[in-house]
Amino acid sequence: MQTQAISTQRRNRNPPCPTALDGTLGDLFQQVGVPLAALGLDQRILRANRSFCSLVGRSEEELVGTRTLDLTHPDDRAASRALLSMIRRGRDVAGLAKRYLHADGHAVFVLVTTSKLQAADGAQLGTLVQAQDISAQVQLRQRLSRLDRLREAVDGNGRALLKAQSKEELWAETCRVAVEAGGLRIAWLGVVGEDGWVVPQACVGDGGAYLKDVRISSDPGRAEGRGPFGLVVQSGRPAIVQDMASDARFEPWRKVAQRFSLCSAACFPLKAGPEVLGVLAVYSESVNFFDEESVALLERLTSNVEFATLALEARASRERAAALLQNQLRRLNYVVERTGMATATMTADLRFTQVNQALGELLGTDPKGLVGAKLLDFVPPDQRRRVRRRYRTLVAGAKGTLARLDHELVGARGERRWVVATGTKVPEMNPEVGVILWQAQDVTAQHLAEEVANRKSAQQAAVAELGQSALATDDINQLTQTASEMLRDQLGVDKASVLRWNRSHDSFRFVAGVGWDASVIGGALIPGGRQSLAGFTVRSTEAVLSDFDSETRFDEGPLREIYGVRCGMAVPIIAGDQP
Asked: 90, 209, 290, 388: which one has the fewest Cβ atoms less than 10 Å from its Cβ?
């Protein structure tokens, strides 16, 4: 509200907009999908197109006369002042990342590019500001960064967990990793006392103050026993509360949670065999914080704790070496089979000695058939040397040394999956049974998401560049040729073109394009009418996609027989309200 008040007050002191500005900007200023604003010489907004108004949630009338600095997030205003200083010195700026404040209060991440606005006689009119909305990419990067930090911490804490001298030290380290790397507000670990009430054993964050005001039970007959902690004790499975404000299971602790700004919670069991030893409880200040990847990583953290707990117990009984070995193997087998993550034990030459169901599903085969096979048999040839070298270093290193590696696995049917694999050298393990505990987290979806985000960003940048070109040139032939080249590059197609419709003859002429014979551009004609893809598109005024081999609506004989086109997409170019 304060930003709007400032904008309204200062708008009245803005000098009149130069008449030459309208001619300089042209009709495309309002039509392009890129947010654009024209600033006067005093750095106040003179014009804002519809995309810019939508970006900041304000009308053009509200924006005219406002300084862009008043729309900027307070933390980014110093960088914006430096930008304005550069503009006043006549310099263009490209690629400044900052945040605007939307009218409803949320921050919008943008990438700002500026260029000079000049009249036909060269007189300086002001500055054109282009603001590309990069909020989706920033949020994706933040989420991926948080997941990467948690993944690295989970991978890296294996050695610390194996060195722990007590359960208390082990559990405190687990809570620390959850809070510091997982972006969580509170993490604590508790066990159930003889009377059924939960007794906290370790906590990090604001857990100490929070736990003073709550009581939690494992008894389902009590309201305090029907929350996520009690459900984990009763079922042995994780329990998630994505919105404390609306989830009835969290009613007994809702007021206390609100006092600490807690919005979601998750609880994970720590088990030895079928018995629940304790429960790890974590809390976030965000609703719906615990997505699939976060839950998988926290489950992996608890699996590491379970395994480290087993190693701790094994060290305490070292004098009973023979019994210890059998007990350790039995417990390790349980950990391998129980975890939902692809897990196996391997010998020093990377031969599987035990494989769980999750790894069998990842590779698309029966896990029993994988016993005796080598890990490298499922690694693409171009990545095997790197994987082999990393695990040789692991085997030669100290006990508990951890190896973390990103690579692909090739399944039984040839499908490729990206994984983040970790190998831990297991102390006191029989070499014939296995010296490496190996786990693989499927991160194929993350790789695809990064590729999609990068591709979308490249496409948005290309569209923005085309919009700048449209504002900067009067050469329609060059503009249409540039558009054809952009389509080919961004869509990865063989051919792209711009066709001009002759209404009187109902035919189309190639006016620009790439991938065609030189004689086609400017000379070749294709028929119109609804029986052609182009003719149908200009009449429907909508984008149309067609597979010429199976399409029955269109007769594209010339395109198929002469130019070898098998499928195509057509998009109408609208001038005013006419295609």
From this structure: 90
